Amino acid sequence: MAPDDFQFLARLLRRRSGLALSMDKIALTKGRLAPVVRRFGFKDVADLVTDLRHGRESLADAVTQAMTFHESGFFREPAQFTRLRAHVLPRLLAARAREKTLRVWSAATAAGQEAYSIAMILSDLRLVQAGWRLEIIATDISADGIYRGESGRYAAHEIERAPELEALSQHLRRDGTEWVVAESLRRMVRFRRFNLLDSFGWLDDVDLVFCRNVLMYFDLALRADVLERMAETIVPDGVLFLGENEEASRTFQASGDGPGIYLRKRAALSRAV
Fold this sequence. Notes:
By secondary structure, the chain is an alpha/beta fold. About 45% of the residues lie in helices and about 20% in strands. It has 2 domains: about 5-65, Orthogonal Bundle (Chemotaxis Receptor Methyltransferase Cher, domain 1), CATH 1.10.155; about 80-270, Rossmann fold.
């Protein structure tokens, strides 16, 4: 791939998705774009970039989808879900015992596995039966991922490799070669296609945010910008989950509940008002 073509792709992907690509990712880029080259009938990546320079939106969207990361799984990074059960949720539920409402955002949810994992934990607590109003908002840049999440259908290998197989089996049923999420959980989760670079104006008063292993692919400036805007959507005592090896910006502080778990700082509230 010519350096000029790669730089064009890198600029386009940063604008559209926040993904930061360095020159050492040329081979990775070519590999990920190979299916797009075949699908659109191009000779090679150079041919694709030539067409892309003319502003073809469907092609730009396909390239963005191919280059962004959609890896996920049920109860991925299980230690964080253990801490969610043991520390984070008891504290949040106690603080909201009077209004009995809890709003959760699973940002970059891939095909919904993370959102449904959270829904399973909340379901096991029988909060709905106790009169709680629960809302889980699941967003992702991928249209295919959102479609799969809404369908609630997953291949057997996606279930079998999960670290909490017993918990999963209580909330899914077998349908041929696939597993289907229980209807009660699907009613709990609302899916929406959303790019983290777009306005968060439609979203507010969130108690708990999961945005794990996504911002690590952004450059420092974009990462800080997303976290700043994310802080404004979270209620003052709300909690942010990043990946276990990710650090938040100055708008958050470590919660003390374990790696990657943060609280919104009071200073962030004063800036948002």
